[in-house]
Amino acid sequence: MNIILLSGGSGKRLWPLSNEVRSKQFLRLFKDKNNNYESMVQRVYKQITTVDKEADVTIATSKSQLSAIRNQLNDKVSVCIEPCRRDTFPAIALAAAYLKDERGIDEEECVVICPVDPYVDNTYYEAINQLEKLVLEDTANITLMGIEPTVPSKKYGYIIPDSKELVSNVKEFKEKPDRETAKKYIEKGALWNAGVFAFKLKYILNKAHEMIDFTDYQDLFNKYSTLNKISFDYAVVEKEQSIQVMRYAGEWKDVGSWNMMAEVMADKTKGNVTLDKTCENTQVINELDIPILCMGCKDMVVAASGDGILVSDKERSGQMKSYVEEISTDVHFAEKSWGTYTVIDVQPQSMTIKIKLKKGNHMKYHAHEHREEVWTIVSGYGKVVVDGREQEVKTGDVITLPVGCKHILIAETDMSVIEVQIGEEISPKDKIVYSL
């Protein structure tokens, strides 16, 4: 089974924990069977490979999410990087070309497109296995999965099938309706459109070539910024005549807001949090090194990180996007392929960062043109290379890195490092990478 997971998101609906580089799918708010916290993307990958150990998973995403994916999944998945955001049709076209030209996937094989972030049980991915079987039967060019509605929601688009059978031809699609119209759709057997599409690889490649002038994956990658922004639904699905839908009645939740996330997160609280006995239906997530005390809170969500603090009524939290867009802050936490960094202090000409480097990992060999850095090794040991000279470092060591020097830190154990950046111009773009 070839699965392309679409991993997008601007990080606004689950602010302040999510941001431009840590979208909701990377928040560790769930737990595995060993009671360890895990993220949505880790949970989804585990579910896919539990249902099908041979599943080939590719994540289509932006470059800003690559480090978080590598941090959480290592090299278990392939990653197709979009040079810039161009909506779902260009993203799927690029991923399809990537599968054919970079991965060597046969054009006759089935490909299933799924969002990376629904909260589901394993029956969802068992149903996706059934989609693959339907595609290989060649009864339709596209096979969709439609979710049996639990309420007449106005948040989702609707698929109107010809019948209420398990598999049916699609009659039409409807945009997000008001509640009364949604009730009428459901009475006719309508399904929520969950953005799950299945087809043979050659089908989507042919569609891509019809709409875009390109030769292969690399050519499409190079032209990507010139492509029109258009969704896969508008570009392909709603124009296709040979299309069918399979009904799915299992658990499915779209955790696109704090209200929905609060329903499925593993614990009522995470971090240094105290709730008094009068609190009701309140979830609190604290990533700060200070305690949070909540008293008398009812139907609320509180989330605190280095990027900000949210205190909201749960229902109202779904309306926060426009307010968050007015808040301009730099990202204060990010997962990298080698570990994490957390901004702990910002001054006019300095920035202090806490770095956690995982055993066996290292940063890139790089230099800065406009700032010097001072590293203090708080715990662990490893090696540093400065302008080609290697030395061992351990807890308590201090390394000064002048402007322009090439440097890298290599962890032989888990390491914790305080990095102080000093200069008149401090920017994440001030980085020149070299080969070691």
Describe what you observe in this structure.
With 436 residues, the chain is α+β, with helices and mostly antiparallel strands. The chain has three domains: 2-254, Spore Coat Polysaccharide Biosynthesis Protein SpsA, Chain A; 258-319, no CATH class; 338-433, Sandwich (Jelly Rolls), CATH 2.60.120. The chain is 21% helix and 35% strand. It has helices spanning 40-51, 66-73, 88-101, 122-136, 179-187, 201-211, 217-223, 232-235, 258-264, 321-324, and strands at residues 2-7, 30-31, 37-38, 56-62, 78-82, 110-115, 118-120, 142-147, 158-161, 167-174, 191-200, 243-248, 252-254, 269-270, 273-275, 283-286, 292-294, 300-305, 308-313, 333-336, 339-347, 350-357, 366-367, 372-379, 382-386, 389-393, 398-401, 407-411, 415-422, 432-433. The strands form eight sheets. The protein has a six-stranded antiparallel beta sheet. A hairpin with a 2-residue loop joins strand 21 and strand 22 (350-357). The longest helix has 15 residues, at 122-136.
